[in-house]
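Re: that chain you flagged

S.,

Sorry for the slow reply, it's been a week of failed gels. I finally had a moment to sit down with the sequence you sent. For the record, here it is as I used it:
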Amino acid sequence: MSDCGTCGGCFSSSSQCHPAKVDGSALSQDHLFYSLLQQAQSVKATASENHDHTIPTIVSILSQNVYASQTALLGAYRQLELSDFVDLAKLCYERHIAGSHVAWAWEFCDNNPSTLLSLLKQGETDPLYDHLDGQAEVHEVFNSMPEGAAGRITRI
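Prediction finished late last night. Pasting the structure tokens below so you have them in one place:
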């Protein structure tokens, strides 16, 4: 991993640099994601000449390659402590807040990842879920998509 450009995996979930991705067919998406979260917690975020693909791969999986969601998640990564970012990523993943829903959640929390993390941890999610479902409906209407195509949040 001497050069980031060698694998082309950043933000595409196709990195071969992550050990668990070498034989990705043998792993479920859940196992891969939780493996990445565990690896992120064990790696110190220090500047080095080697590029760690863990955070970009987490961002790619959660964002489902939606640029606005990638931007939101990278903003959260910059603003939060690593352990809080990992908690936020895990909570979003477990609640199926992914793809465009990540950007809409970011918008709902006024670009404040601490607010989003707090809402998800405390379980005060009804207003957030209402917003996400509303944004999904608007997205469907203005993009001539069938009802439900943008997905809805499963309330847990």
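What I noticed first: The chain has a mean pLDDT of 79.

Talk soon,
D.
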